[in-house]
């Protein structure tokens, strides 16, 4: 959708039956109110930038919303969106919201040379979402074509050229979009987010950040993931906050470019996972720091993976000469099942920490407006202040469940509360996140499921069947993957280790932090299921012997 095509039909009205000064009840109504021509969204590509005022965002998405009907897509239909261009993705997603079409954002291939693996992931997500069609950014058409999807595949140009039709206004309780997790999984779950929940969370985020139209935001976070999608597309658009975007790939190539953009535009709000702050603290040169002005940056959000105090302190110290203030840090906790934000640190208060079992734990803030948090013990009892247990959430931002998975929905959404599978405790009203009950390893802000890593690594000859476990391990400013395995008789440990590293890197694009070869079998349940937590505990106590 490059070239900023002019809208061909008039802006569609009538999404809401409330005055313009009342809060909108659907995203369609919020988009219909965009009027500002002095501020907008700027999408920075490698060679050029595309700018859209908020008034233009309103006009273009109204035009495209009317054209979904021309592709045979109607209200309530699910459409998979795959685009590596932020401008294209934003217009496709927002126009779907206006038309009552349920967008299903899916990550593009991380590496273009892995078409076969990506095709399998895409087919699973198409099946799980029961999508009507797939809309693919032009540069990715060939890769997606190789996935051999059993549904129509269109390009953005097809939508622009489609005949306009009537639009049925979505209702607050209607599904706005389906959100998959950020990582790969053998059993993807699509979270069902309603218009009501999306607007409730967006308003709670705005209030928690004290965001105003005069703010300026900068983001490299992928728009197919909830933190980038809700936090840096939905929130800025409905509040008409000027926002500048870089691609995630551009950040990976040159992290300092993110700070240069913050400095250039005088950004006041920007977010990143913990690893990004650590990366910049260690890689920035004195010349990099000297060229920056970060004095306007008042909200330096941190989320999507465990927040580490030493990382943020190192960043603050490194960039203090550039005007960065440590009190700008705003650690957060959230998850797609609650649309995005659950807790935010009060803006301007900076880091707050406490200690548990000798570890320094960072506060992730207080519940956002309209959200309650409680901690439950293993027997379902409510935990008191400072007592660790499972984090449970309820409130206006909760999603409706997992699409097509009633049993898993019933387990997670029980008695009006979302059981997150994350561990933590409350102290003085602040939430401290300490770990996870569920088996997920977070590497650089991306979820990796242990069984996916174990499946790939287990294809290497020389590993005893059923005796390989993927565990999280501290790796600098993020988590890393530790593989624990037992060798088959006569296998060469060095050869197996090298082949495992290559296989995981090739198939999953993931570097293994270390590989431990142990004697004997790994612990399992009576039914033969691997016990990862027990494996980690036995390693810690020395009861599981590592071969020299």
From TrEMBL:
A Pfam family this chain is assigned to: AMP-binding
Region of interest called Disordered, as start-end residue ranges on this chain: 1-21
Keyword match Zinc: no
Source taxon at top rank: Bacteria
UniProt keyword Ligase, yes or no: yes
InterPro entries from the UniProt entry: AMP-bd_C_sf, AMP-dep_synth/lig_dom, ANL_N_sf, FAAL/FAAC
Keywords for this protein: Ligase
Residue stretches making up the AMP-dependent synthetase/ligase domain: 49-403
Gene Ontology terms, MF aspect: ligase activity
Similarity-based family: Belongs to the ATP-dependent AMP-binding enzyme family.
Protein name listed in UniProt: Fatty acyl-AMP ligase
